[in-house]
Amino acid sequence: MEMFTFGPGTIVGPYRIVKQIGSGGMGAVYEAAHLVLRRRAAVKVLHAHLRGKSGLDARMIQEASILEDLCHPGITRIYDCAVLADGRPWIAMELVPGESLAVRMAREVRIPHADLSKLMSSIADVLATVHVRGIVHRDLKPDNILFAELHTGFPLRIIDWGVARLGPSARLTQDGVTCGTPIYMSPEQCAGKNIAPACDVYSLGIMAYEALCGHPPFEGENLAEVVKLHLHGAAAPLATKCPTAPQKLCELVHQMLHKVPTMRPTASTVSLRMNELANSITDARHDFAQFELEEPPSEFASFEITGGAPQPVRAAKFGPSHALDQILTETSDSDTTAKWASDPGGPDRKPEQSASDSTTRATRTSAQVEKLGR
Ligand SMILES: Nc1ncnc2c1ncn2[C@@H]1O[C@H](COP(=O)(O)OP(=O)(O)O)[C@@H](O)[C@H]1O
Ligand SMILES: [Mg+2]
After folding, report:
1. Distance (Å, rounded) from C-alpha 216 to C-alpha 208?
2. Can you tell me whether residue 357 is helix, strand or coil?
3. Which of 27, 207, 317, 372 is deepest in the core (most CB within 10 A)?
4. Is residue 140 in contact with ligand 1, taking CB distance under 6 Å?
5. Which among 115, 125, 139, 160 is annotated as catalytic?
6. Cα–Cα distance between 264 and 185 in angstroms, integer?
7. Residues 161, 44 within the same domain
8. Pairwise CA distance, residues 125 & 86, whole Å
9. Do residues 210 and 118 touch, judged by C-beta distance below 8 A?
10. pLDDT digits (tens, 9 = 90+) for 37-67
11. Alpha-carbon distance 357 to 354, whole Å?
12. 126 and 17, same structural domain?
């Protein structure tokens, strides 16, 4: 497979490539400097081996159009889009320097409940804006959430709008072909039908569940099993899996995971309720610190101390989008995607690093409890 990448100094439109910062199923992403302006940008270029294949050039142009149409601080600003001499499209967009939610989830065993609720509220806020315009992201997952610098006015950016759907008239995939990453994919996506905003809410619910208890609700030995669980499996109750989590937070996440799309809350409801939850947890924490209560309220996720070193198991990465028929026919041992089960952390995970970070986190939380005079 031809994997042509650009070295430092390569000129793409009015940009000079500085270094490669990422790569996905569709393209390689580079940090680049504008030749005239002081601007730094993220330049995404379609992989050479995908040139002219299955309308992927069109998808990339579509991603650029979506970025241009949508005006929300949680969506990367687009600067430019054009086609290289060899026919490959490229996009220049706002460079987001922060880590991804996937990296944060691998580092922090459990994100404090107030932070998590705030984070979910922000992501849902972006989704609410795009859903109103009939756009569905369709590939929401922790890798596609990047943390932004504080001064930019919004805490994160949702990236990778390449498989987003623009509404019934602008569908780029054929009927029955599924886009998305199986661990985060809604039942209706798994079944290749009814792609509506509710599918993003489901994916967000999976992310919240994973962040709360260290692993996603549906895992299996192979892709077909995961798909089956999305379609028919029941997520283990969060109230049992993480008893310290606020009951309302657990309930909301389970509602987001409802099998019936119309029974899920909308993104705007999720944003509102997550924000309320974040505020109530923060207020409770403040009261506790102020009055030196004997026992912290159960919402005190960040002060939770569990016995022994926590053993987080994060969602494996399935790589780029899969067509359902491809998923179901994949062989169980010859394909790298089938091997994910034996490496539950997926290719990006660094278990040693997470384990030591977990220890650091346990020490840190103990110190916090002590400081509060528990
Ligand atoms: N605007 C950006 N700023 C910083 N890094 C980015 C940006 N866009 C993408 N990346 C990095 O490049 C990787 C691949 O980008 P993505 O849009 O997911 O590509 P693909 O469409 O090929 O899946 C991301 O996971 C991220 O690490
Ligand atoms: Mg991607």
Report:
1. 9
2. helix
3. 207
4. no
5. 139
6. 15
7. no
8. 39
9. no
10. 999 999 999 999 888 876 888 888 888 988 8
11. 5
12. no
